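User: quick one, sequence for these tokens?
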């Protein structure tokens, strides 16, 4: 029987956010990341969409005893999609790999009402930096669409539940890459004036 694994391409790449065993860097062919909002969540998150011309890096990890309950709960706004044949990985035994993606008809573009969270971006970039180095961070930005979306700077009071403490150099790296893609980073007060989430919002 094949061992179950998942392919993570966002926060799951940051191993500080979970304790699933046997993690390994891997690549997923035929998919691309994009920042999207789903009506199932108040803010925008990463999802993966089919793209035959793209290949993205990420992390696979084992799901012990085929018990997907904890991961399904964490990724509750996503569908679990079979992706074994699309993933390149270093494992030599028989595995079945799934990837989580928001259903096509359930996501729309981010907005001031449904922005990206900088605390979430921090977690994702930190994960890619640790797993793939600065060049991997650059590839993450290059293979992710939607950087024109508004980003809420919530670092002072992180709203992402699995937020991490970044080193000053990591924070500088995130800010530099966001500047390179001309990202629009809003302070909480700015976003409130723009008709976005109230300052009291907690994810």
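Assistant:
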């Amino acid at each position: 029987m094949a061992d179950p694994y998942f392919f993570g391409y966002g926060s799951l790449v940051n191993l500080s956010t979970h304790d699933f065993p046997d993690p390994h860097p891997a690549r997923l062919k035929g998919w691309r990341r994009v920042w999207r909002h789903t009506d199932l969540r108040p803010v925008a998150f990463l999802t993966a969409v089919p793209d035959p011309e793209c290949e993205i890096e990420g992390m696979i990890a084992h799901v012990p005893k085929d018990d997907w309950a904890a991961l399904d709960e964490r990724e509750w706004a996503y569908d679990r999609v079979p992706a074994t044949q699309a993933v390149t990985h270093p494992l030599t035994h028989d595995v079945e790999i799934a990837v989580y993606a928001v259903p096509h008809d359930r996501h729309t573009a981010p907005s001031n009402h449904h922005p990206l969270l900088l605390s979430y971006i921090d977690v994702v970039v930190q994960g890619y930096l640790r797993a793939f180095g600065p060049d991997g961070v650059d590839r993450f930005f290059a293979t992710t669409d939607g950087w024109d979306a508004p980003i809420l700077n919530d670092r002072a009071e992180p709203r992402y539940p699995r937020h991490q403490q970044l080193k000053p150099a990591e924070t500088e790296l995130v800010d530099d890459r966001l500047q390179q893609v001309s990202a629009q980073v809003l302070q909480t007060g700015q976003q409130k004036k723009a008709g976005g989430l109230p300052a009291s919002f907690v994810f």
